[in-house]
Amino acid sequence: MFGSLIVDIKHLRRVFGQFATGVTVIVGLDSRGEKSAFTATSFNTVSLEPPLAVFSVSKKGQICSHLLQCETFIVNVLAEHQADLSDLFGRLAAPEDRVQALHDMEHEWGARVPDALAAMRCVPFLTQDIGNHMLFVVRVVEAVFEEGHKPLVFFSSRYQAIQGLIVPECPDVEKIS
Ligand SMILES: Cc1cc2nc3c(=O)[nH]c(=O)nc-3n(C[C@H](O)[C@H](O)[C@H](O)COP(=O)(O)O)c2cc1C
């Protein structure tokens, strides 16, 4: 359906890894209040009007089937000091540690990472089964950010920090759509 694989997967992973991203922890909440959380670097923005964002989830794990039942997603953009949290929800971790971390996230939205760079409360807009992932397009209904924090960056399979500015000011940033 998608044609033959012309790029070696290991090589492609390294090439994709050259695209630096922020790091998010996304919490899904279903109607019974059940939560699941996972680390995602696939988060990206889609549209301002309407306010849409996207992330993709591997269909392999259990998390995907739960997320398909969720009516709310809390996207937490991690700050520089939160690599441990990214690992907790992104790599093999003791289930009790994840339960404790989710407990620490209790918030009127349902869950929120304390001290994150930004957080968005989202609702489902569209899902698309694609390749070995499920694509979730979500509508942002509430959004906040913390002034002065620096982002956690993921580049070349490693956590990195932003070192400094290349261009001191971007004068027309408001005009970029
Ligand atoms: C930095 C980082 C980014 C990740 N990004 C994604 C992603 O965008 N989509 C995805 O399905 N999994 C991603 N993962 C893996 C999931 O977070 C992980 O498989 C999920 O938490 C399930 O964990 P488990 O298999 O131990 O239960 C990422 C992991 C890390 C460490």
UniProtKB/TrEMBL annotation:
MF (Gene Ontology): FMN binding; riboflavin reductase (NADPH) activity
Domain of life: Bacteria
Cited InterPro entries: Flavin_Rdtase-like_dom (IPR002563), NADH-dep_flavin_reductase (IPR050268), Split_barrel_FMN-bd (IPR012349)
Keywords noted in UniProt: Oxidoreductase
All copies of domain Flavin reductase like, residue ranges: 16-161
Alphabetical list of Pfam families matching this protein: Flavin_Reduct
The protein's name in its UniProt record: Flavin reductase like domain-containing protein
The species this protein was found in: Acetobacter aceti
Species classification: Bacteria, Pseudomonadati, Pseudomonadota, Alphaproteobacteria, Acetobacterales
